[in-house]
Amino acid sequence: MTDSLELKSIGGYELVELVGSGGLGEVFKAKNSKTGQVVALKRLHERYQTNKKLLGLFHKEIMIHSRVSHKHCVGFIGADLTPPNAHIVTEFIEGNNCHNLIREAGAIAPLVACCIMLDMLQGLEHLHCLDIVHSDLTPSNIMVEHTGRVLLADFGLSSEQEFENYEGMTVGTPGYQAPERLEHAPITTLADIYGAGIIFHEMLRGERLFMNMNDAETKKRMQSLKFDWINTGHKDFDKHLKTLLSTSLAYRPQKRYPTPRDFMYALYVCLKAFNIRYTRRAVLQWMVDKKLSRLPAQPPMQRIYV
Length: 306
Prior knowledge:
By secondary structure, the chain is α+β, with helices and mostly antiparallel strands. 36% of the residues lie in helices and 16% in strands.
């Protein structure tokens, strides 16, 4: 473990295991000492516990996440900013993230990718309705529960449009930023639409769209994206997929889907054509086929492969 090796509990939560570690903090699977509820506990690294700037950013994440309440967003439970154990407690997701799903299974079946996107965009729409921009959409921040439920996670870089923007700063994960972010333009909800498009592309292709490129190389590729590799054997579906990608990944923000709801409707049209009505069950069905869920598939079985 890291500098938390000696810790047994934090703020009334027993630490069960370390499940992740990043630049700013560590995430533990933990259990409420009184109720037994299993949660995720994110603790700021000990070396940052007295850093006023980083504590401020952590506080911002807490303030934003505490406003978020949606079935497709990881739920907020509580937080404490008191050093040396400043932490945030959230819902624990028994499952995996999209990055690991792609790493283990390769490209995700197109109709299943549409289901994952449709559910994730519901969570994103909730954020945008609160005037919150996620700012860091990546496959690692899309959680897929063993049941097939899809949730949006990690609001550490989220911002409130009304109060702030990061003009002049590079925000987000390299390879998952919108063109305007590479030019240090203000944060907008349309940058999230582009981030969603990058993730959709990665799910369909099974590999990253922008990898090992500097900003100049990335922007050049963004301006010349082609989707000729799409070939499901169903011409109308291929056309829809290409439109979904070309619109969400439009270089100019004003040419993208204006809202997550518009993106969702375009995905819904694809799913309706194949009579897929239960997105969560479709995702679970695919995970069971790939041996990525220990649960049985739930009827009715749907046509999830083209």
